[in-house]
Design brief:
Oligomer: heterodimer
Structural class of chain B: mainly beta
Radius of gyration of chain A: 25 Å
Number of strands of chain A: 0
Shape of chain A: flat
Largest sheet of chain B: 5 strands, mixed
Helix content of chain A: over 70%
Strand content of chain A: under 5%
Shape of chain B: globular
Distance between the termini of chain B: 55 Å
Number of helices of chain A: 19
Strand order of the largest sheet of chain B: 5-4-3-2-35
Order of helices and strands of chain A: HHHHHHHHHHHHHHHHHHH
Number of helices of chain B: 3
Largest interface: A-B, 42 and 34 residues
Largest sheet of chain A: none
């Protein structure tokens, strides 16, 4: 390919929104060049130039930019396996399952020895409703990596969809044996047991799932259904109430997260996500969402004041203290910040820091 | 997707049946949610000639809708009895409403003729059938005229006083001025700019109107316990006696919000029990897009089951009645109905024994809401194949393409024996496209027996909406309810259809009339329409 055609290709590409790029149209060679490819032996300096931009975009969670960069890499360095793999994973994250399958199947054509890397290909088949293909591919992945948790879990779900309930249960048990805190596996296990009308086992499993992740609506849904079927009406009503609260929040969150996939750094959306986690009372997720929000403007005092308000409101003293410290460093001369810090330390009854913040505020206001 | 390799069971005769008849639903680009749900189809024998007629509810153009000018009028086509239709004469012509959606059919004035309710973006309309000679709009006299966006409706006798009552399912509060266009780019699906909604918009509550039996209605949403229920984005409605207590209950399919099951307390007041009965969400506790509803006793336990069509990426859902209690369990995957529906967006659907082999089958009309579904990476398409799910042994279904039609952007459907050959045919509405008549190609004869049964009773509710007809053999029963609700923006004739396969005639036919009185009838033979009249 000549330099001119590369340039023209890049110019044309730049005019197409990343979401409209089709991986089926990417150039493909005979693949022989990559047959002995081993990522462990890949020198950083040997990476195609565009891969750094891919990494930067992924770190920034700017997926449209990452898409465009990966397409550019694959146009410049035909069939570069890590780019096909990354593109497949990215398409899966963007819920473009057919595209994910195209990319990961190409990756596997090029480097069949790397089948252990391709559980996401099986996830793709599963998401398209191709459960038998998903199951078969999970089995190929598990042959290489028998303890690959997400492949085991996926295999269990594929078995479940294909009506192999007992096998699915056994595999979910295996996931939980490897990772006793795997909330999703615990939830699916409860769901399966309920489906099999094993109400006592289902109740125990749903209780465990709820204890592992009390902010997911599905365990509460299952608890409400199971307890309702057992005639435990009061408990069922309470579980239903919590399910309904979390379900509404979860639906709104899905909408926000789906929009964020294509509008990275949209501060309004990032704040919405924080607000929704606060509504759910989920400290862990609130912290993560705040961290993402702060990445959109690392030096923003306003965003950290917002974070302080949310974490303190939720009683997450540790996170709030951390934010208070950051604010003190970011805005040492801002009287309004110190006023807010004074209020915060008062609210958690840290008299020493409250007094210090108050004195600082007064000094800055010249009193 | 694996489909059965068979000849499509239905043959499209649209060009012959309804030449040049299309519906309009806003702009082709679908910039607003108002423009995506399509029109409606109401089947009934309006002129009393024994053949099914078709009332097509049409929408409007965006320009007219924006200016609040009248939309396209509903059009009646009279059936010739061979699956084809002809435009009805001037006496049947109706004015354009605002932006038509669907409607309901029933005898609201107890004169023995099927009348019509039309839902639309705009006030719900009431049309009186003038003794089989023509239509007359009586919206104002009927006491209606309010309403902002009705999608589906049902006429049924909620309080068992013999007068048909009206339930209107409302969608959402829509206003061109307040809701952003697709062109703003604010609303995205898989990265593509699409029309906005329903998420983020305001759902409207359903409404209940008590029928006075003379064509007039009084709104009783609050008294009936409907108004107090948290509203959903209502699209479909089904009338059925889910708990077999002799009164009519309602199931409402809500888009992106939990579905409702309104349990009739026996007096025309309702309790919403969707969650308690397991039909509000899918098995994962997710609210789904819920458009069309099919209803029949699929597991033959005497209680009707439900099937709900959903968005692409969600599976269609089969709720089977549980062995114990009054609840339901989602069994979509086990029945083989989940995976084939994943890439498709389903609308009109109906159970029926279409191949007359004695087992219930199911069809689903499909078509996306977003024209942008044809862009890269969506895993679906705007025009889609309609699916036929053939009933197999063990409660499973096998999937095949429904007809020889090209993929279309399908919406509402209505089922009936349009050519009087004993099997069930389908009318399929598509968005901004032709109205298709799909004639059933089922084999007839020894192993494909059938019965159609209609009921008549004197006085009120002459078509006996709410009655249950059960065929009884020594070792088996098959039952179905008389209703006109078609599930999604549609209505069907007040009769039941049974495919019997190679079964002999039932030993008896048991009818539970709407007032609870039961009577038995002898079966006069197979492969015919039986009109059973209530004995004094």
């Amino acid at each position: 390919m000549s330099a001119l055609s590369l340039l023209l290709g890049a110019l044309l590409l730049a005019q197409v929104p990343a979401t409209e790029l089709d991986p089926r149209l990417l150039p493909r060679g005979d693949g022989a060049r990559w047959k002995d490819f081993d990522p462990a032996k890949l020198e950083r300096t040997a990476l195609p130039a565009g891969m750094e931009e891919v990494q930067r975009a992924l770190l920034a969670q700017d997926y449209p930019r990452a898409l465009a960069a990966l397409h550019a890499v694959l146009r410049q360095t035909e069939d570069f396996p890590p780019a096909w793999h990354q593109l497949g994973v990215l398409y899966f994250r963007l819920q473009r399952y057919g595209d994910a399958v195209v990319c990961l199947e190409r990756y596997l054509e090029l480097v069949p020895q790397r089948v252990g890397d391709t559980r996401v290909l099986a996830h793709g088949y599963y998401s398209l409703g191709e459960y038998a293909r998903a199951k078969a591919h999970y089995e190929r992945v598990l042959e290489r990596n028998p303890k690959e948790l997400e492949a085991l879990r996926g295999h269990a779900l594929a078995c479940m969809r294909l009506g192999e309930s007992e096998r699915a249960l056994a595999e979910l048990d295996a996931v939980l044996a490897l990772d006793p805190r795997h909330a999703d596996a615990a939830t699916w296990r409860a769901s399966l047991l309920y489906d099999l009308e094993r109400l006592d086992d289902a109740l125990a499993a749903a209780t465990l799932a709820r204890d592992l992740d009390a902010f997911q609506p599905k365990p509460w849904f299952l608890l409400a259904r199971i307890q309702g079927d057992r005639g435990e009406d009061k408990a069922a009503e309470e579980a239903q109430r919590r399910f309904e609260e979390l379900s509404v929040i979860s639906q709104e969150l899905r909408a926000v997260e789906n929009r964020l996939l294509y509008r990275p750094g949209d501060r309004l959306l990032l704040r919405s996500a924080c607000e929704l986690h606060r509504r759910a009372g989920n400290r862990t997720q609130l912290r993560e969402s705040l961290a993402r929000l702060f990445r959109s403007d690392p030096s923003s005092v306003e965003l950290r004041l917002y974070g302080l308000e949310l974490t303190a409101g939720l009683g997450d003293e540790a996170a709030a203290r951390l934010l208070a410290e950051q604010l003190a460093q970011l805005a040492p001369e801002d009287a309004l910040v110190w006023e807010r810090l004074e209020q915060f330390y008062a609210s958690i009854k840290d008299r020493k820091l409250q007094i210090e913040a108050g004195e600082r505020r007064l000094r800055l206001r010249g009193k | 997707m694996l489909f059965l390799q068979t000849t499509p069971p239905f043959l499209e005769i649209g060009a012959r049946a309804l030449p040049g008849v299309v519906t309009t639903c806003g702009s082709p680009a679908k910039d607003y949610i108002l423009e995506v749900n399509g029109g409606g189809v109401l089947l009934a024998d309006f002129d009393g000639d024994g053949r099914l007629d078709l009332l097509l509810v049409d929408g409007s153009t965006s320009e007219r809708a924006r200016k609040q000018e009248s939309g396209l009028p509903p059009r009646l086509f009279l059936g010739r009895g061979d699956g084809t239709f002809q435009p009805a004469g001037a006496a049947w012509q109706l004015e354009g409403g605002r932006f038509g959606m669907g409607g309901a059919v029933g005898d609201i004035d107890n004169d023995g003729w099927p009348d019509v309710v039309i839902t639309q973006w705009g006030p719900t309309r009431v049309i009186r059938n003038e003794g089989g000679k023509g239509f007359r709009e009586i919206t104002t006299e009927a006491g209606l005229g309010a309403g902002s966006w009705g999608s589906s409706a049902a006429l049924f006798d909620a309080d068992r006083d013999g007068n048909l009552d009206l339930f209107v399912v409302n969608y959402l509060d829509f206003d061109f001025a307040r809701i952003g266009s697709r062109e703003t780019g604010n609303c995205r699906w898989k990265g593509h700019a699409v029309m906005c909604g329903p998420e983020g918009l305001t759902p409207l509550p359903s409404q209940f109107f008590r029928g006075l039996g003379n064509g007039r209605f009084e709104e009783r949403s609050k008294e009936a316990g409907i108004a107090g229920v948290k509203p959903g984005f209502g699209l479909g409605v089904m009338v059925f006696d889910y708990d077999r207590d002799g009164d009519s209950d309602l199931y409402v399919a809500n888009d992106s919000t939990p579905n409702h099951l309104f349990e009739n307390r026996g007096d025309g007041t309702f309790a919403e029990v969707g969650f308690a009965r397991g039909v509000s969400h899918d098995a994962n506790g997710r609210e789904q897009a819920s458009m069309g509803i099919a209803c029949a006793d699929a597991n033959e336990d005497g209680r009707d089951d439900l099937f709900v069509t959903n968005f692409s990426g969600e599976n269609n859902v089969l709720y089977l009645s549980a062995a114990k209690g009054l609840g339901y369990r989602e069994r979509s995957g086990q029945a083989g109905l989940a995976a084939p529906s994943l890439p498709l967006l389903g609308w009109g659907t109906s159970f029926g024994d279409y191949d007359l082999d004695g087992r219930l089958d199911l069809f689903v009309l499909n078509g996306h809401v977003y024209p942008q579904a044809d862009q890269p990476g969506t895993d679906t398409s705007y025009a889609q194949a309609d699916l036929f799910h053939r009933g197999l042994e063990g409660g499973k279904f096998g999937s095949a393409v429904l007809s020889d039609s090209k993929p279309a952007v399908s919406r509402a459907s209505a089922v009936g024996d349009l050519d009087n050959d004993g099997d069930l045919d389908i009318v399929a509405v598509s968005v901004d496209g032709p109205v298709r008549v799909l004639l059933n190609q089922a084999a007839q004869g020894e192993n494909h027996r059938w019965l159609r049964i209609a009921l008549r009773q004197p006085g009120k509710n002459r078509f006996a909406l709410g009655a249950r007809v059960t065929l009884e053999w020594k070792d088996r029963q098959q039952g179905a309810e008389i209703r006109t609700a078609g599930g999604y923006q549609s209505a069907v004739a007040p009769e039941v259809h049974f495919g019997l396969g190679s079964r002999p005639a039932p030993e008896r036919i048991r009818v539970r009339w709407p007032d609870g009185i039961e009577q038995e009838f002898a079966c006069a033979g197979l492969d015919r329409l039986l009109l059973l009249e209530r004995r004094p």
